[in-house]
Structure formats: C-alpha cells, structure tokens
C-alpha cells in the first residue's frame, strides 16, 4: 500500500487550465480531475503517476478531512469500463473487459486546486516535488489558453439510425410490458474516425459544457475526456453518497423558454418515475455495504442546470459498514443503476442483445480513490474516448413504459451534440435536430 503524499500549500494561485497543457506535453500518462471552467467551489487535481491495478482492498475512510486540506492526498486515479462491471455481475458482454492494470495510475505527483479558497497544494513524497512543479511552472504560458479552433471538420458515424433506435425503444417497452424489466437505459454510439488531439478537444469540451465532475485522463495511450455532471459515488467521513441523474431537457433560447423547460422536466410524470426507480435501485445497492437503517434520500427530483441541458437529480446516502472496501462497494453498486435500469442484471442482459455493440468506457466511472479510503467517482457520460484511430461518444436514455420513442431519440441527439462538436464533428444527417423535430 503506498504512503499518503505530503500536502504542502503553495504561495500563489495558478489556474489548472494554464498548468495542464505543459504537463500533458511532458508526460504520456496524466490526469486532470476538473471542477469546471470558472469553478468557484470544489477541488480540481492534476498530476501524473504509474500504472497499477485497481485498489480493491482499500478500506473506505471512516474519518474526516481537516478543514481546508485536500480531500485527496495520495492514492489512485483512473477509470473502470462498463464491461468490467457487467461481467462481474454475471451479464453477457460484447468485448472483454479492459485489464485494470492499464486503467489506473498510482499518483506520484499532483497539484490540488481549492477553488473556494483560491489556494494551491503540492502533493508529492516528503522532500520531493518542488523541482517537478518548478519545471512545470517554467513551461506554463503566462496567459490562460483559449480553446483551439477545429482544423478539420467531420461527420460522425452512428451505430443506429434514429429509426432503428426508436424500434429498439419499442422492444424495451415490450420487455417492460412483459415484466422482464421496469426500466432500461438504452444507449448508442457515435464514432469520429481519424486522429484527434485530446488536449485541444478537451479544451473545447470544457469551454462549451463545464461540469463539476469533468476530467481528462490519458493512460496507456487512450484518453477519456469528460464533462460529466453526475457524481456516481462519494465516500468520506464514513458516509457513502450517490447522485443519480435521470431526466433531461435542452436549455431554452431565452429566459422564459428555459424556465418553462426546467419546469416541464420537474413535473414530467415519466421523468419522475424513471428517476425514482433508479433511486430505489441505488438504495438497494448501497444497503449491501451500509449499516442497516442508515439509507437516506437526501434530495429527490431536484433540477440542476448546465450550459447545454437541465437534469433531474436525486441524492441517496448511507453509513458505510465497518471494514467496507472499495472493491465491495463497486461490487454492490457498479455499473450504476442510472446506466443499466432495473432489475439490474436482467436489464444488462437485455441491453447486451439490444445495443449490438460494446459501451467500453462510456457508462463506466472515473475519478480518485485515496490511500486513506476517501473516494470520488463520476459517471462516464457527456464524454469522449480517444484512441489512435478514432474517437467515440456514447449517449442514451432511460426507457420506461411511458417513453415516447421520438422524444427519446431527440434526447440522445441533445446529449451527443456537444461532445461531437468538441471533436469538430457534425451529427449524422438523420440525427440532426431539425430532422428529428
């Protein structure tokens, strides 16, 4: 087990968007857990590390972090792909899960950004790290970089046409009518062939759709770029929380239209039913690793607004049972119910047949696991995966008996549009909003 890194406050502030390009140019394996452009609360972390397997045996933190100190002070940063969780749960999968020794980094050097206090911390082994940071600062631009313009335009390729996706929705409704599932999170994928500069793409993504759980992770030659608004799991002080999102509306062109869309989302019976089914599923999942009677719904059907969308969000928490490990928590709760449906195993089994291809990192999770048992993992949604030959964007939505296929297809287009735009890609012609509407 690695030691906790030393946490040393730094005398002056440097924005993470200024530091990150210099770090990404120097190291192949890097991360930036990003509280969002112009964040005024929360923490961001950027740094580097060495590949290590997923830390299954770390026990969840039962203590509390000293006020003002970074909540992450050493441990691991990485992702878990959807197929890894589905296979462990006993569901069929389209591809072999990723070897987790290639998807997690043990952090060796990092900088923590306290956005509320406007304060920096160096995280490094005792008596080390100053030279690393000084060289990084020396290579940092004096100006905050602006997102680089797209050089080549593309048209994305879709796994399904809207018509095919709507047919799959009807098949989901048939399964629900037959009692095989109560809800199914049906997804599809858009592919943009060619090579892409992940740093430039992420600059554009976070500028267009800032989110409190964004991130850039490049490990083993693959890059995950995320503007995720969904916190999957947080553990600290003996409490586990999850904040599932179910229910989406686009932002309006003016204040009145925007407010009307948010109000419509809050009151929509289908969206509320979809959301509460996942709340019940997450209550059940957390009960497997929490003290009996400690599960609470702290917030239900709360509308959160982001630059591109309104979302319907709920919060579920519980007190971690003594001795609960990170591995046990993910065995209980991953893949997230918001990305599977209910009952979970039945939903994943049906979705394997319906979707016709892998989800890969999309619908998985990413973030940090502290050596002290603190944990903060986000859902891989509103995200891009970049490899040597192409970039991939997943999108989907929860299907209930009350789903209207055309409306569900429009929601997919709304979710995929911003990540594809960051890649310089247009939606395929059949998926463009003017046609769907």
Through-space gap between termini: 55 Å
Count of spatially separate domains: 2
CATH class of the largest domain: Alpha Beta
Counting DSSP H or I runs of 4 or more residues, the number of helices is 11
CATH architecture of the largest domain: 4-Layer Sandwich
Mean pLDDT: 91
Q: What are the segments in which pLDDT stays under 50 over at least 5 consecutive residues?
A: none
Written overview of the protein:
With 437 residues, the chain is an alpha+beta fold. It folds into two domains: 125 residues, no CATH class; 249 residues, 4-Layer Sandwich (Anthranilate synthase), CATH 3.60.120. It contains eleven helices and 22 strands. The strands form two sheets. The protein has a 20-stranded antiparallel beta sheet that branches. A hairpin with a 2-residue loop joins β10 and β11. α4 crosses α10.
Structure summary:
Helices cover 29% and strands 31% of the residues. It is an alpha+beta fold. The protein has a 20-stranded antiparallel beta sheet that branches. A two-stranded parallel sheet has the order 7-22.
SSE layout and pairings?
Elements: E1 6-9, H1 16-26, E2 30-34, E3 43-51, E4 75-80, H2 82-88, E5 104-114, E6 119-124, H3 130-138, E7 154-155, E8 157-158, H4 162-177, E9 183-193, H5 198-208, E10 213-219, E11 222-228, E12 231-236, E13 239-242, E14 245-250, H6 255-267, H7 269-287, E15 296-305, E16 309-319, H8 326-333, E17 341-342, H9 344-355, E18 365-370, E19 375-379, E20 383-386, E21 390-399, H10 405-422, E22 425-426, H11 433-436
Helix pairs in contact: 4-10, 5-10
């Amino acid at each position: 087990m690695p030691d906790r890194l030393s946490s040393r406050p730094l005398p002056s502030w440097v924005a993470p968007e200024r530091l990150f390009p210099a770090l990404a140019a120097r190291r192949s394996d890097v991360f930036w857990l990003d509280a969002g452009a112009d964040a005024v609360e929360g923490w961001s972390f950027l740094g580097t590390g060495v590949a290590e397997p997923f830390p299954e045996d770390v026990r969840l933190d039962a203590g509390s972090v000293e006020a003002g100190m970074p909540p992450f002070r050493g441990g691991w940063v990485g992702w878990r792909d959807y197929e890894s969780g589905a296979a462990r749960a006993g569901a069929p999968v389209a591809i072999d899960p990723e070897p987790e020794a290639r998807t997690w980094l043990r952090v060796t050097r990092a900088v923590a950004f306290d956005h509320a206090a406007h304060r920096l911390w160096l995280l490094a082994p005792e008596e080390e790290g100053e030279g690393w940071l000084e060289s990084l600062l020396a290579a940092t631009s004096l100006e905050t970089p602006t997102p680089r313009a797209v050089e080549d335009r593309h048209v994305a390729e879709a796994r399904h046409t809207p018509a095919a996706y709507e047919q799959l929705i009807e098949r989901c409704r048939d399964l629900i009518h037959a009692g095989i599932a109560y809800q199914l999170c049906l997804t599809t994928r858009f592919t943009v062939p060619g090579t892409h500069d992940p740093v430039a793409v992420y600059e554009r993504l976070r500028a267009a759709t800032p989110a409190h759980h964004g991130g850039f992770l490049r490990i083993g030659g693959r890059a995950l770029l995320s503007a995720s608004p969904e916190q999957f799991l947080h553990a600290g002080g003996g409490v586990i929380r999850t904040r599932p999102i179910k229910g989406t509306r686009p932002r309006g062109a003016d204040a009145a239209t925007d407010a009307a869309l948010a109000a419509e989302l809050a009151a929509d019976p289908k969206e509320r039913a979809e959301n509460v089914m996942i709340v019940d599923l997450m209550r059940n999942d957390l009960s497997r690793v929490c003290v009996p009677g400690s599960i609470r719904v702290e917030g239900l059907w709360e509308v959160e607004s982001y630059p591109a969308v309104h979302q319907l969000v709920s919060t579920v928490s519980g007190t971690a049972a003594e001795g609960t490990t990170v591995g046990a928590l993910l065995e209980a709760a991953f893949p997230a119910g918001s990305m599977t449906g209910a009952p979970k195993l039945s939903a994943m089994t049906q979705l394997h047949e319906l979707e016709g291809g892998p989800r890969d990192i999309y619908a998985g999770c990413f973030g940090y696991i502290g050596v002290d048992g603190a944990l903060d993992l986000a859902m891989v949604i509103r995200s891009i995966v970049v490899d040597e030959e192409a970039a991939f964007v997943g999108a989907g939505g929860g299907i209930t008996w009350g789903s209207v296929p055309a409306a569900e297809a429009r929601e997919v287009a709304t979710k995929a549009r911003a990540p594809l735009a960051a890649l310089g890609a247009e939606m395929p012609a059949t998926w463009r909003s003017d046609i769907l509407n």
